[in-house]
Amino acid sequence: MTTKTPEELYATMLRQSLWVITTRPARGPGMQDLLPAHLDYQIAMEREGTLFGAGPIFEDGGTTPTGGMIIVRAPDEAEARALADADPFHAAGLRQYSLHRWMLNEGAMTVTVRYSDQTAVIG
């Protein structure tokens, strides 16, 4: 059991601000046509180190996505909004988004790199 105060515990946490972009459909047809451009944009952000994670959201155990979530690294809200605005889905008006600042405090990530077969596993 810890003997640290909440303030002492909080002081050691990561406290990294990230930006969460939650998306929802705005208009119907056209999504499939822009999907390659949307994915290319996200892969480019990933390679630049801007994209923390992204993927579809499913409601109540459903199997069809009802929206999406994109988490980006940005120094401020204006930059995060510029990244969201540049997404081809948003620029074309096919999806609307909400922007939220998220402070990452706790959690863990495990990465295993196997030299023998040059694979990596994230768990």
Helix and strand topology:
Blueprint: H1 6-12, E1 16-25, H2 31-48, E2 51-57, E3 67-72, H3 77-86, H4 88-91, E4 95-104, E5 111-114, E6 119-122
Antiparallel strand pairs: 1-3, 1-4, 2-3, 5-6
Describe the structure.
- This is YCII-related domain-containing protein.
- Residues 22-102 form the YCII-related domain.
- Belongs to the YciI family.
- This protein is of the alpha+beta class and 123 residues long.
- The chain has one domain: Dimeric alpha+beta barrel (Alpha-Beta Plaits, 2-Layer Sandwich).
- It is 32% helix and 33% strand.
- The protein contains four helices and six strands; from the N terminus they run αβαββααβββ.
- The protein has helices spanning 6-12, 31-48, 77-86, 88-91; strands at 16-25, 51-57, 67-72, 95-104, 111-114, 119-122.
- The strands form two sheets. A four-stranded antiparallel beta sheet has the order 2-3-1-4. The chain has a two-stranded antiparallel ribbon with strand order 5-6.
- The chain is globular and about 55 Å long.
Low-confidence stretches: none
In the residues, how many domains can be counted? 1
Give, in order, the helices and strands: HEHEEHHEEE
Number of strands: 6
Supply the helix-strand structural class: alpha+beta
Shape: globular
The tally of helices reads 4
Q: Which value, in Å, is the CA radius of gyration? A: 18 Å
Mean of pLDDT: 91
Percentage of β-strand residues: 25-35%
Approximately how much helix is present in the residues?
25-40%
The rounded distance between the terminal residues' Cα atoms is 27 Å
According to CATH, what is the class?
Answer: Alpha Beta
Q: Which architecture does the CATH hierarchy give at level 2?
A: 2-Layer Sandwich
- How do the strands of the widest beta sheet line up side by side? 2-3-1-4
Remind me, CATH topology?
Alpha-Beta Plaits
Instruction: Name the CATH superfamily classification.
Output: Dimeric alpha+beta barrel
